[in-house]
Amino acid sequence: MKDIKHKNEQRARRRKRNRAKIFGTAERPRLSIFCSNQYTSVQIIDDSAGRTLAAGSTKGMKSGSKSAQAKILGEVIAQKAAATGVKKVVFNKGAYAYHGRVKAFAESARSKGLVF
Predict the structure, then answer these.
(1) Which pLDDT tens digit goes with each residue over 3-54?
(2) Could you tell me which residues are beta bridge partners of residue 43?
(3) pTM > 0.85: yes or no
(4) Mode of pairing for the β-strands spanning 90-92 and 51-57
(5) Cα dihedral value 13, 52, 46, 89, nearest 10
(6) How many CA atoms lie within 13 A of 68 on its CB side?
(7) Could you describe the subunit structure of this protein (predicted)?
(8) What residue ranges define each of the domains in the chain, with the CATH number in brackets?
């Protein structure tokens, strides 16, 4: 139990340290990703106004692995961003390593024209 608590504390510290350096503006909002054990969700956030411009999740997706679902999510969020007029974002991966679902999502969103 102690190891799990320590692991969660380390993740919280990494998230806080990462978040202190990243701020989304109206011209370049923040693209935040969250990975749970089952789902991946993302938001495009304008921190200066304090509102979410677009959001998406893998919750309704049934087929494929988690990485494949994250890849589809990248395409979906890039389309939603284009619909709201967002072309450039600041990528906030939180406490997660750029690997697996996070990498699949980021590469897919970049391939659909989202710049970060």
Answers:
(1) 888 999 999 999 999 999 999 999 999 999 999 999 999 999 999 999 999 9
(2) 32, 55
(3) yes
(4) unpaired
(5) 80
(6) 5
(7) Part of the 50S ribosomal subunit; part of the 5S rRNA/L5/L18/L25 subcomplex. Contacts the 5S and 23S rRNAs.
(8) 2-111 (3.30.420.100)
Closest of 31, 30, 28, 53 to residue 42, by C-alpha: 31
Q: How many residues does the chain have?
A: 116
> Do 34 and 40 form a contact (C-beta atoms < 8 A)?
yes
Q: Residue 64 has what pLDDT?
A: 94
d(CA 80, CA 85): 9
Rounded Cα gap, residues 87 and 78, in angstroms: 9
Contact 44, 52 (CB under 8 A): yes
The per-residue pLDDT for range 62-73, each reduced to its tens digit, is 989 999 999 999
